């Protein structure tokens, strides 16, 4: 399942970061997920909880920031919200020569440690296996 491998990858990266900092618990993980990344919210929440069990993330809250899909037309420069299912042909000139600007993100936005230490602001791409 896509969501399970994603959840496991997130937990592994956050657990590694916690270990490196000597931190014993994680309060909250913020994920940035593009609406076109093919992630089902309920499945992700379910898998995240399972993946956290027995790790320093046990009981951590998952907050997901959904990013809208946007595309731009190379022919006329128009850009638009793709929606879902995504409209990838240019709505202005009908060209298929378009680029996806956003919507496929899968990254850790921030991690809030249980310690009073400030949250890290680092954004890192998730390396899914
Ligand atoms: Zn166009």
From TrEMBL:
<feature type="binding site">
    <location>
        <position position="76"/>
    </location>
    <ligand>
        <name>Zn(2+)</name>
    </ligand>
</feature>
<dbReference type="GO" id="GO:0016151">
    <property type="term" value="F:nickel cation binding"/>
</dbReference>
<keyword id="KW-0862">Zinc</keyword>
<dbReference type="GO" id="GO:0051604">
    <property type="term" value="P:protein maturation"/>
</dbReference>
<dbReference type="InterPro" id="IPR000688">
    <property type="entry name" value="HypA/HybF"/>
</dbReference>
<comment type="function">
    <text>Involved in the maturation of [NiFe] hydrogenases. Required for nickel insertion into the metal center of the hydrogenase.</text>
</comment>
<comment type="similarity">
    <text>Belongs to the HypA/HybF family.</text>
</comment>
<protein>
    <recommendedName>
        <fullName>Hydrogenase maturation factor HypA</fullName>
    </recommendedName>
</protein>
<feature type="binding site">
    <location>
        <position position="73"/>
    </location>
    <ligand>
        <name>Zn(2+)</name>
    </ligand>
</feature>
<dbReference type="GO" id="GO:0008270">
    <property type="term" value="F:zinc ion binding"/>
</dbReference>
<dbReference type="Pfam" id="PF01155">
    <property type="entry name" value="HypA"/>
</dbReference>
<feature type="binding site">
    <location>
        <position position="90"/>
    </location>
    <ligand>
        <name>Zn(2+)</name>
    </ligand>
</feature>
<feature type="binding site">
    <location>
        <position position="93"/>
    </location>
    <ligand>
        <name>Zn(2+)</name>
    </ligand>
</feature>
<feature type="binding site">
    <location>
        <position position="2"/>
    </location>
    <ligand>
        <name>Ni(2+)</name>
    </ligand>
</feature>
<keyword id="KW-0479">Metal-binding</keyword>
<keyword id="KW-0533">Nickel</keyword>
